[in-house]
Design a protein that fits this description.
Chain A: It comes from Parvibaculum sedimenti. The complex is a heterodimer of chains A (about 425) and B (about 350). Chain A is an alpha/beta fold. Chain A is built from 13 helices and 18 strands. Chain B contains twelve helices and nine strands. Classes of the chains: A alpha/beta (about 425), B alpha/beta (about 350).
């Protein structure tokens, strides 16, 4: 019976609001017990002792929007390399998108992801399945069978389901299984540009993607949701107006949730200056006013989850004039420090922030993790809130190095990551 | 040859903006041994008007004035670029601009090579950086680049070791066009400051408009833009211009009327309903021109769509139209730009 005793920890369980000094015992891959008084009679014999030195012991992070290249584009990222990056970033569960070759739109392919994840990954990996066959936006996939096979939600990934009739039927049908639909909210005809539609875009001579490309799609889907029922989640909101729309819809009792990427909380369109393609992401980085509204959305709970939006692109896809470069930025290893900046800035309380990275995504996807509670899997991360470090792309574990945080000074990082009772990352260890 | 000369011009401070008399009048007559001309332009590349000071612009225009005179002589050939290699790298076809740069380089004594790389013939972008790196290995001193993507020229400037001139990048900038427009205006009106200039037409897709707005603003002109809302970029009101949707109101009291080309494919319903309707409301004819000052000049960067954005009679009116003069100024301005940038190039071999 393997046991690990975390002592001198600052136990933070966002779900219960717990934030106390104390200890935690892991036995047989599960959290056995925790609390301020645990080990008052001594630490159990034979347990590995981890002295947390007052650092935060939190449920491991759950990142529900990760793109990899497996299957089909393994040179960009495999499930294994993504899991290495995740472990180093304190992420114990990552959810991969179906935008692969082939597309994850069939039970056999969900099985493939689950098996490869089990055999090669060092953190939990679950797939979202495609909502429409081949991501073509026309015919719905086998939502029931895919869900039984292990798909945690249904999405066309970085493509919007543009056809209103298709979305209406998918929402209606998915309700039968309680399946979650995740939308990349964007009207394709309005989203032909390459960055936020703004004065800056005009100065750079780049075509813009207006905020209405996002808000119109969200408004449309919410109208559909009113008639069909079901569960609807906006993968990533990018602008103030979207936050306001969702805030209002929730007030009116609609079952809508949404996420935001850590990059959108930390950066804005001005970072693009000089045509820096690593800041070309979808949805686009928007104005500082939008960024502030997103932060406020996290603070007041309108925005449920924070994601990395991890999207590895190789150098060849980014070494182009801005308009021709591909969209996407990696983010697994910067998810935690980019998010913690909101706490350091005093904009979001710590438990609220960690909640958006732990129990909120767990609840959204129905995962039995994301909390510090006896009996749950020991998916844990030990966090040094204040540790300063510089993001060096060469040292990141992702195969692709397209990080928008390159050479940035950030604060806070994972010291140790545990998945199912197994230590998968120790900071400064050089290995896993 | 230059290596023998101990007086390296690069040692002089680059922030000098006043042009010494010797630079103004003798540049064309100097031999290569004497070509240690003082620097007048504190930039390595000319990627756009953005970032240039009024003094930078004035220095280039002053130098260009001397080249206008040189180009009107029987012997037009100078030697300030003798021994230098200039490559015109055009990813987007342009007869006018390319021949203007070619002539400018040749009249200054440079070896000029033209490379036209049709954007459609290469897989977009893929060979872009490779092409630049390959050309750079041939030791050019100046590369003139046009590309259909905004920012492409800046990207390439980071990959080469020579000076780069932007000959137009996407909808971003076309600095030598703005400079030649400014030279034309300054020679005709004696000044730029205080003039009212209307830029009319497809502002949205126009790099000429962006460079002109920046340059004219920096030189103290009042700039107006006149276009239907579908052809105006987002946030144009924050560019320091006045926005008009009505030609007659917009042209009221203008000293300069600058027309822009409207691409034919944008006239069939996507941005404006038809050629006919566009000309009716936004085409320049004598009636609309009548609202500008009586001595207002008409300009167009070319090539013109006669009968679409400009009436043929207006375009050919020698009393109002300076369109042909713009072409002449284009060569002189490009000579000034090449000369100014070459003065900052190393004059000694570095191994």
């Amino acid at each position: 019976m393997s046991r690990t005793a975390f002592i001198n920890a600052r136990l933070v369980d966002p779900a219960s609001g717990l934030d106390v000094k104390g200890n935690l015992l892991v036995a047989d891959g599960k959290i056995a017990d925790l609390g301020p008084d645990l080990f008052s009679d001594g630490i159990p014999d034979g347990a590995e002792i981890v002295d947390c030195r007052g650092h935060i012991l939190s449920p491991g992070l759950i990142d529900c929007r990760v793109f990899t290249g497996e299957p089909g584009a393994e040179h960009r990222e495999t499930l294994r390399t993504a899991s290495l990056a995740a472990a180093a970033g304190g992420v114990t569960t990552l959810i991969v998108m179906p935008n692969t070759h082939p597309v994850i739109d069939d039970v056999a392919l969900v099985d493939f992801i689950e098996r490869r994840a089990r055999d090669t990954g060092i953190v939990h990996i679950h797939p979202m399945a495609a909502l429409t066959k081949g991501l073509a936006g026309a015919e719905m996939t086998e939502i029931g069978l895919l869900k039984e096979a292990g798909a945690v939600a249904f999405t066309d990934g970085d493509r919007a389901v543009a056809n209103a009739q298709v979305m209406r039927r998918a929402m209606s049908y998915a309700g039968l299984f309680g399946a979650l639909i995740v939308q990349h909210a964007e009207v394709p005809e309005l989203a032909t540009g390459v960055m936020n539609d703004s004065e800056l875009a005009s100065r750079l001579g780049l075509s813009g993607i207006p905020a209405i490309a996002e808000t119109i799609m969200i408004e449309r889907d919410l109208r559909l949701l009113e008639t069909t029922g079901g569960r609807y989640h906006v993968a990533q909101v990018s602008c103030a107006a979207s936050v306001e729309i969702i805030r209002r819809a929730r007030h009116n009792g609609l079952n809508v949730t949404c996420g935001v990427s850590a990059a959108h909380l930390a950066l804005n369109e001005n970072d693009i200056r000089g045509y820096r393609t690593f800041f070309k992401v979808s949805p686009p980085l928007r104005s500082e006013e939008d960024r502030k509204a997103l932060v406020a959305g996290v603070a007041d709970g309108t925005i449920d989850v924070i994601v990395s939006g991890h999207n590895p692109q190789d150098a060849d896809a980014k070494r182009h004039p801005f308009a021709e470069a591909s969209f996407g930025a990696i983010g697994l290893e910067t998810l935690l420090p980019a998010s913690l900046a909101l706490v350091h800035d005093g904009d979001v309380p710590l438990t609220r922030l960690l909640g958006a990275l732990t129990f909120a995504p767990a609840d959204l996807l129905g995962l039995q993790t994301g909390r510090l509670a006896a009996g749950l899997p020991a998916d844990l991360v030990l966090i040094d809130m204040g540790m300063p470090w510089v993001v060096e792309s060469a040292r990141l574990r992702s195969t692709s190095k397209n990080t928008p945080f390159e050479d940035r000074r950030v604060q806070g990082r994972a010291l140790r990551t545990m998945v199912g009772g197994r230590t998968v990352y120790i900071h400064g260890d050089g290995g896993h | 040859m230059a290596a023998e000369n101990g007086d390296n011009s690069l040692a002089a401070p680059l922030d000098t903006c006043r042009i010494p008399e010797s630079a103004l009048y003798n540049a064309a007559l100097m031999t290569s041994a004497e070509k240690q001309l003082p620097p007048i332009f504190p930039h390595r590349h000319l990627l756009g008007i953005e970032g240039l000071s009024a003094a930078d612009i004035t220095a280039l225009l002053d130098l260009a004035d001397t080249y206008v005179e040189q180009n009107r002589q029987v012997d037009k050939k100078g030697s300030v670029l003798r021994g230098r290699t200039q490559i015109n790298l055009f990813f987007e076809a342009s007869t006018r601009t390319q021949s203007s740069f070619e002539l400018a380089g040749k009249r200054l004594g440079a070896d000029v090579m033209n490379m036209s790389v049709g954007s459609s013939s290469v897989k977009k972008g893929e060979t872009l950086i490779d092409t630049a790196v390959t050309l750079n290995a041939m030791h050019p001193d100046l590369i003139i680049i046009r590309h259909a993507s905004s920012g492409a020229v800046e990207l390439l400037s980071q990959k080469v070791s020579c000076s780069v001139v932007n000959a137009g990048d996407g909808a971003h900038e076309h600095p030598t066009q703005a400079l030649l427009d400014a030279l034309t205006i300054r020679r005709r009106k004696g000044r730029i400051e205080g003039l009212t200039v209307a830029i009319c037409g497809d502002i949205l897709h126009s790099r000429v408009a962006r460079s002109n707005i920046l340059l004219l603003g920096a030189m103290g002109a009042r700039v107006r833009v006149i276009a239907p809302p579908t052809l105006l970029p987002r946030g144009i009101d924050r560019f320091g211009v006045e926005v008009f949707h009505d030609m007659r109101k917009g042209l009221e009291g203008c000293d300069i009327v600058m027309m822009l080309r409207l691409q034919l494919e944008r006239m069939s319903g996507s941005y404006v309903p038809s050629q006919r309707e566009y000309f009716h409301y936004f085409g320049l004819d004598y009636e609309k021109l009548g609202h500008a000052k009586p001595d207002a000049l008409v300009m167009h960067p070319g090539p013109m769509n006669r009968g679409v954005e400009i009436d043929s009679a207006v375009a050919d009116d020698i009393n109002r139209s300076v369109i042909r003069e713009q072409v002449e100024m284009g060569v002189a301005v490009r000579m000034a730009v090449l000369d100014a940038l070459a003065r900052n190039l190393p004059n000694e071999l570095r191994i």
